[in-house]
Amino acid sequence: MLTVKVLHLWMVVSWFAGLFYLPRIFVNLAMVAPNSAAERDRLLLMAGKLYRFMTPIAALAVVLGLWLWFGFGFSGGWLHAKTGLVVALLAYHAYCNRLLRDFRAGRNRHGHVWYRWFNELPVLVLLAVTYLAVVKPF
């Protein structure tokens, strides 16, 4: 069980690294000057590679989390709340893909300030998930 926990935490930390950095790339993309195609292409390449890297990590984090839940019988309201937050993170992850597609197609609809705020959402979710997993308040 401890090995599964370690692997789960490793995948979660890696996934969050991507969730923190990808929107930062979006901030930079939103600030690229219209005449700077090389910078835009470089940032799009970075964002695409990061998204492709973090997606299987997210899947492994979820699979290992489910293994812990169903394989070892954790229970409690805290786990259901945590699972709800993980579902929200998966939606955030998928929305990042949509934003990336919009950038690639030249259809970005948000400014860099919006992306700065968007970048803070996973920080808040990480705080809540960590609290629920450690304190198990209910």
From TrEMBL:
GO molecular function: metal ion binding; protoporphyrinogen oxidase activity
Membrane topology: Multi-pass membrane protein
Metabolic or biological pathway, per its Swiss-Prot or TrEMBL entry: Porphyrin-containing compound metabolism; protoporphyrin-IX biosynthesis; protoporphyrin-IX from protoporphyrinogen-IX: step 1/1
Major location category of this protein: membrane
Taxonomic superkingdom: Bacteria
Stored InterPro entries: HemJ-like
GO cellular component, one term: plasma membrane
Subcellular localization, as worded in the UniProt entry: Cell membrane
Transmembrane segments: 12-32, 53-72, 78-96, 117-135
Positions contributing to heme binding: H8, K82
Catalytic activity: protoporphyrinogen IX + 3 A = protoporphyrin IX + 3 AH2
Cofactor (UniProt): heme b
Record GO biological process: protoporphyrinogen IX biosynthetic process
Alphabetical keyword list: Cell membrane, Heme, Iron, Membrane, Metal-binding, Oxidoreductase, Transmembrane, Transmembrane helix
EC number: 1.3.99.-
Entry's cofactor comment: Binds 1 heme b (iron(II)-protoporphyrin IX) group per subunit.
Family of the protein in this entry: Belongs to the HemJ family.
Role summary: Catalyzes the oxidation of protoporphyrinogen IX to protoporphyrin IX.
HAMAP family: HemJ
Subunit relationships: Homodimer.
Protein's name according to its UniProt entry: Protoporphyrinogen IX oxidase
